[in-house]
Write a structure and sequence with these properties.
three-stranded antiparallel β-sheet, globular, 44% helix, alpha+beta
Length: 306
């Protein structure tokens, strides 16, 4: 069969255009979006807040992702890959699992399901979380979190989001493979969850809007919510927190005054809740008024562990 040169050129052009379109459609990789100035500013604020010792001891992990410019996200973190007990924060993983079931047609997003998800996320109902986890399926959720499209639990990143236990007594299923936590997270993997969500990379755009709505209007007004309410009461926040004994966690996608960012903090301290109330104000100011570079960032002598 003789191939016409015009046919060859046409085919090549179509393939090239498809490749460019796919490349443009893919969101930037947060692994390649570390920002030296934002990192410098984060470390400086943590020192000013007296949290350097907690960071050095591995008792505090923080991740900040400025997504105001979606094509050029900026990432800063301390102890970002440290796996920590995260209490109720990993309920966002159950939310994700539920919406993947809904997307596949295995579950219906009716009023009863929506209300159960709202109780689980906005009000952190353990009963609602346990019931929804049963519907989603524990093995299914574990596979989903580790699956290649998402890798929200990834050994290469020292773990991430994990739900190995329902939120009740004597219902342990499977601790995370690396650190043996029942409900665990790393700050950067939680940040990736919010980033992939807002980029429509977790579920369809229509279901993304549904997930975002459930994450909005937080019903527990402490930690990040308390800090933002005192400084920026008009801020829009999509959020999930967690608390158990001395373990505190908070995570949010925040929008106000033309800026958008993701903030995550995990702490092991009786003071962790207050740390987060104060910390979100500092993180917000970092995004609203970025600091100029004050020194050359030296990776050979890190101030904190990552």
């Amino acid at each position: 069969m003789r191939l016409d040169i015009k046919d060859i050129l046409y085919t090549f052009t179509v393939i090239l255009l498809l490749s460019v379109t796919q490349a443009q459609a893919a969101p930037p990789d947060l692994d390649n979006s570390r920002d030296a100035i934002l990192q410098q500013d984060l470390e400086r604020h943590l020192r000013r807040m007296g949290l350097e010792e907690a960071v050095d001891a591995g008792k505090l992990a923080v991740a900040l992702v400025d997504i105001t410019d979606e094509d050029h996200p900026k990432v800063a973190a301390v102890n970002g890959d440290k796996m920590m007990y995260a209490a109720s924060l990993p309920k966002i993983a159950i939310l994700f699992g539920a919406f993947k079931r809904i997307e596949a047609g295995d579950m219906e997003l009716n009023e009863e399901t929506r209300n159960l998800l709202i109780q689980m996320i906005r009000y952190s109902s353990n009963q609602a979380a346990s019931e929804m986890l049963d519907r989603v399926g524990k093995p299914y959720l574990a596979r989903l979190l580790q699956s290649p499209p998402y890798r929200l639990y990834d050994p290469a990143r020292n773990g991430g989001l994990w739900v190995g236990k329902a939120y009740g007594k004597n219902d342990l299923w499977k601790r995370d493979p690396l650190h043996h936590l029942s409900h665990g997270a790393t700050a950067l993997q939680v940040a990736r969850f919010y980033y992939l969500l807002e980029q429509n990379e977790l579920v369809s755009p229509a279901l993304t809007r549904e997930m975002m709505e459930i994450l909005s209007k937080p019903g527990i007004t402490h930690k990040f919510v308390k800090g933002l309410a005192g400084e920026y009461p008009g801020a829009r926040i999509y959020r999930k927190s967690g608390t158990w004994k001395q373990w505190h966690a908070d995570s949010a996608l925040v929008e106000h005054d033309g800026k958008r960012y993701i903030a995550v903090a995990l702490a092991e301290s009786s003071e962790g809740g207050q740390w987060m109330t104060n910390l979100i104000v500092a993180l917000d100011r970092m995004v609203q008024a970025p600091a100029p570079s004050i020194a050359v960032f030296d990776h050979s002598e890190p101030v904190f562990l990552f």
